[in-house]
Design brief:
It contains 14 helices and 13 strands. It folds into 2 domains: 234 residues, Type I PLP-dependent aspartate aminotransferase-like (Major domain) (Aspartate Aminotransferase, domain 2), CATH 3.40.640; 87 residues, Aspartate Aminotransferase, domain 1, CATH 3.90.1150.10. α1 packs across α11 and α12 runs parallel beside α14. A 7-stranded mixed β-sheet has the order 2-8-7-6-5-3-4, with helices on both faces. A 4-stranded antiparallel β-sheet has the order 9-10-13-12, with helices on one face. Strands 1-11 form a two-stranded parallel sheet. The chain is globular, with a radius of gyration of 20 Å. It is 41% helix and 18% strand. It is α/β, with parallel strands linked by helices. β12 and β13 form a beta hairpin. The chain binds pyridoxal-5'-phosphate (PLP).
C-alpha cells in the first residue's frame, strides 16, 4: 500500500464526482456560455458574499491575475516572505506584473497589521515604490497549515483601507481554516477585495480555482485570464467537479485535521524527531534530529511506502487528505514507529 502524504493535491476524483463531471452541461466559456462554469462562479461568489467569480486553471493563475489587476508595474506588494504568491509561483509577480515586493517575517508565515502599517511606503515620497497591495495566505502552507486570528485579518484590512491598498486573500485552503474557526465565508468576503479559492487541494477536485471579487474586478480579471492563456472552452466538466466538491467535501475536512493531529502525537514520541510544529489543520511539519537530513528520512520513509516531502534541510511536511483512509493512518503510524533511523 502506497500512502501518499506529499500534498492534498494527490487525490483522485471519486466515481460520484466523475459522474457529476460526465453529466455536466457545457459551452464555450470564453463566450461566457458554459452553464456549469457560470453556476460555479455564481455559487462561490454567493457563498463568500462577493459580487462575481472567475474559474481558472490553478491557484497560481488566480493569484497572479489578482496581482495583475490590483497593481501597476513598479508598485509594491506587502506579503510574508514565505507566502505561496511570492515563494512558490516562479517569480510570477515580478515577471507577469513587474511589481516590487516588501517581504515581511512573522511566526508561522503570518503577518501582523502593525508590521503591515510599518512597511507602507509614504505615497508622497517619490524615491520609494508605491505600496498598493497587501496579500495574506490562510491557511498558511509554509507555516504548517496555520490559521490566522480573524481579528488580525480585520486589522490588516483596516490598515489597507486607510492607506488605499487592495487586500488579497490566497485562500487555497480557506475551507480548512473555516472548518476550525467561527467565521463564515461571507465574513471573509466582507474584508477582502479579492479571494482565491482552490478546489484541487483539500476539496478533492482534479483541477481548478476560483477568483472572487467585485463585478468590476472580475471584469478586468477575465481579460487578464485570457492574456495569461487561461481562457478555457468547455471546461464545465472541471467546474462540475468543483461544484461537487463544494457540496460534498467541505463538511468532512475536520476528518483530515483529526488524522494530522493523531500523526503529530505519534511523531512527538520518536527519538529521531526533534520538534513537531503545532497542527491547526491538515498540514503537519516536523523537524528531524540535529544532523539528520530531512531528505534522507523522506527517502527512507518512501522505501516503506510512506510518501512525504522535505520542506527544508531539517523539516518534513505531511498533508492529510480525502484519499487518506483510517486504514492508511494506522499503516502510516506503524511505519513511523518501526522505521529504523540511525
Ligand atoms: C496550492 C496553492 C496555491 C495554488 O497552487 P496551484 O497548484 O497553482 O493550484 C496557492 N496558494 C497556496 C497557499 C497553495 O497551497
Amino acid at each position: 500500500m502506497k500512502i501518499d502524504l506529499r500534498s492534498d493535491t494527490v487525490t483522485r476524483p471519486t466515481p460520484a464526482m466523475m459522474q457529476a463531471m460526465f453529466l455536466a452541461k457545457v459551452g464555450d466559456d470564453v463566450f461566457e456560455e458554459d452553464p456549469t462554469i457560470n453556476e460555479l462562479e455564481e455559487k462561490a461568489a454567493v457563498l463568500f458574499g462577493m459580487e462575481a467569480g472567475l474559474f481558472c486553471a490553478s491557484g497560481t493563475m488566480t493569484n497572479q491575475i489578482a496581482v495583475n489587476v490590483h497593481t501597476r508595474p513598479g508598485d509594491e506588494v506587502i506579503l510574508h516572505k514565505l507566502s505561496h504568491l511570492y515563494y512558490y509561483e516562479g517569480g510570477g509577480m515580478m515577471r507577469n506584473s513587474g511589481v516590487s515586493v516588501c517581504l515581511l517575517e512573522g511566526e508561522r508565515g503570518m503577518i501582523s497589521a502593525e508590521d503591515v502599517e510599518n512597511h507602507i511606503n509614504p505615497a508622497d515620497d517619490v524615491h520609494r515604490p508605491l505600496t498598493t497591495m497587501v496579500a495574506v495566505e490562510n491557511t498558511m502552507n509554509k507555516g504548517g497549515g496555520a490559521v490566522y486570528d480573524f481579528n488580525e485579518l480585520l486589522k490588516i484590512g483596516q490598515a489597507a483601507q486607510k492607506h488605499k491598498l487592495t487586500y488579497h486573500l490566497d485562500g487555497a485552503r480557506i475551507f480548512n481554516a473555516l472548518a476550525v474557526t467561527e467565521q463564515s465565508p461571507a465574513d471573509y468576503g466582507k474584508i477582502f477585495d479579492s479571494i482565491s479559492v482552490c478546489f484541487s487541494k483539500g476539496l478533492g477536485a482534479p483541477v481548478g480555482s476560483v477568483l472572487l471579487g467585485s463585478k468590476d474586478f472580475i471584469y478586468k480579471a477575465r481579460r487578464v485570464r485570457k492574456i495569461f492563456g487561461g481562457g478555457m472552452r468547455q471546461a464545465g466538466y472541471l467546474a462540475a467537479a468543483a461544484i461537487y466538491a463544494l457540496d460534498h467535501n467541505v463538511e468532512r475536512l475536520n476528518e483530515d485535521h483529526r488524522k494530522a493531529k493523531v500523526m503529530a502525537e505519534t511523531l512527538k514520541e520518536l527519538n529521531w524527531v526533534d520538534e513537531v510544529l503545532p497542527v491547526d489543520t491538515n498540514i503537519l511539519i516536523f523537524k528531524t534530529r540535529p544532523g539528520l537530513l530531512a531528505a534522507d528520512v523522506v527517502k527512507k520513509l518512501a522505501s516503506e511506502g510512506l510518501l512525504c516531502m522535505d520542506f527544508d534541510k531539517q523539516s518534513i511536511r505531511l498533508v492529510t487528505h480525502l484519499d487518506f483512509t483510517d486504514e492508511m493512518l494506522e499503516a502510516a503510524i506503524r511505519i513511523l514507529k518501526t522505521i529504523q533511523i540511525k
